[in-house]
Amino acid sequence: MIRFLIMRVILALAALGVLATPVAAQIDPAARGLAVQAQQQNTTLAREASMQGASLTKWRTCRAKLRLALVSTCKIAFPGDSKTFGAGAGTGSKFTVNAFGFSRPSRLAVLLGQQGLATRTNSWFGAGGMSSIADVLAYDPRRSGFSGWSGGVVSLGGASLATGNTNPGTFQPSVPVDRASIFYVQRPGEGAFTVSKGLETFTINAQSATNAIIRSEITFVMKDSSPISITRTSGGFVEIAGMIAWDSAVPGIEISNFAVYGVVSGYQADATAAWSPLNALAAYAPDLTIINLWTNNLNTGVPLATSIADLQAIITKAKLTGDCILEWPSIGGTSPSYGADATRAQWKSALVTLAASNGCAFQDDEALLGGRVGAVSNGLTADGVHETGPGYDIEAQTLQRYTSQ
Prior knowledge:
alpha/beta, six-stranded antiparallel sheet, 14 helices, globular
């Protein structure tokens, strides 16, 4: 009994800070190691959390101007691979049929719209890494026609859609529109084409001595949801990188999916030509760039140093006009082809460092889906690599918090 009372007094004095605590030296070394590891993890998590919103100053400024009608558009660009493309959320052998509407960019647009923030998603960019025009149209059925068209030079969203024939390629807006932006390759030897909606037709000549990616703005008199068609009329090939259609009376957030199925980071960092992805990204001048790459880098053995250099090049271009968010890609199962846990931890740490050193926000998609095991057990991966629609929606929810705060 006396021994028990003495122990209670000692514990009380220690709690009040009256006694020094040499007992710390008696802590099991293994327990101490776990405590240090936990503290390091907490420090890392706190570091990541500190980058979630405070870094997006340029983006928040644009959004504030948008609300005050001081600007008409704030632009979000999504350079990425198949996981940004939306593969996994659709059907077919690559899970890409009808996948566009379930992709992370599309889901972000829906969530922002539910908050009362108008978004512009009547758009398309490139072939997205699809191997045929049939696959391109199946991915996003708002596009039709394009008979005899093929892949042209690589630009926004992968290979541009190119043709030397006079068969139209058509896009069906989901809302009434009176404006359209046409992104095309300009260079010597290119042809002329028309852009038509209803009874209105505009002619664009892509032939020029200057190599460039051009965003041509078209204003229609009629505001309706009639389909918009592009038709080559003369000269050489025409190469169309994309289109955006919108209602000029509604200021909005323009969300552009530049993802390409199956690519490594070097693809999106290519600056070989004026229209190559990296130079085209700078020409697009995004207010916010959301980057999700490295999945295929890990799968194909691209060195970490090369991968870091690629992302730094993309970040540098993105920061010329806006802010950026770096996403650590999720993966399901235990396949070592996408990196063993220790390797992925090393790469993730490098991505966190890239975010911190460049003032970018950071999002851990793998953690959001419950890690490798959770992504599988919760049905959030279609094939162990690509998310299902609900998986992309979970990731988009966090992006929505970043972009709307």
